[in-house]
Amino acid sequence: MKLSRELSSELNHLFLFELSDKSTVEAVFYRGDTLCVSTQVGCALGCPFCLSGSKGLVRNLTAEEIVGQYTILKDRLPIKKIAIAGIGEPLMNWSNVERAFWHFKSLGLGVSFYTTGHPTSKLRELIELPHRGVTISLHSVKEDKRKRLIPSAGSLEELINTLREALNKLSARKRKSISLAYLLLEGVNDSEDEIKSFAQLVKELGVSATLLRYNRTVEDYKDVDDSRYERFFLLLRTYGIRVTLSTRFRRDRLGGCGTLAVNRTLTEC
């Protein structure tokens, strides 16, 4: 495994790693202290709005390859936190991800996760870890619509039931480290009724909300405008829930949410 290319914007630093089989994956250093690492070569979820899974799943990364993204960069960057939020669904490669997690923890690094919650049997294990936060992609409270947005993420009903069971075992403070994410897509899932249903679910579960904006990676989808985004943020706040917004790092053209790619060619850089 070796670092093959580095790209930078005003906010983020994107790193392309070449693996032993010549595949490449990407990691992003952002916010001045956090390295976002990948867990798979590609992704099997099939989200139509995300670039990371556009070429399907090639294979899982080994625990050594997950950690290697940090090891190669640790002496040149002030990395204090790891976000397991890059290419791939971490729960679909759980044995390797869990091994990498404990290695990161042994080094004193705070570790957070971004997941669809599938498979739910592994989600229970993830929630119980001493993590710094788990964000679960929901994007819709309607079973059929979520199936279109995240085709291979399993049953929404099963996910919610699993969360209810797992969260009952946590303190109120620990619950706040769990967040449900909602990516606003214009004309797809941005009705007021849907946002209200999402808010009600977040409040019922006692967790936090993450309201995301779309990085235009696929022409079939559009971001909502600023006023609509702000209106939905204020609507969520009326339910008394904690809401995290899309930061400028998440919206950056380089390394923002949904922009990481497998086997990126030089013309795509």
Describe the structure.
Strands 1-2-3-4-7-8-9-10-11-12 form a 10-stranded mixed β-sheet, with helices on one face. It has a two-stranded antiparallel sheet with strand order 5-6. α3 (about 120-130) runs parallel beside α5. The protein has helices spanning about 65-75, 95-105, 120-130, 145-150, 155-165, 170-175, 190-205, 225-235; strands at about 1-10, 15-20, 25-30, 35, 40, 55-60, 80-85, 110-115, 135, 180-185, 210, 245. By secondary structure, it is of the alpha/beta class. Helix content is about 30%, strand content about 20%. The protein is globular and about 50 Å long. The two termini are about 20 Å apart. The protein is built from 8 helices and 12 strands. β10 (about 180-185), α7 (about 190-205) and β11 (about 210) form a beta-alpha-beta unit. The chain has a single domain, classed as TIM Barrel.
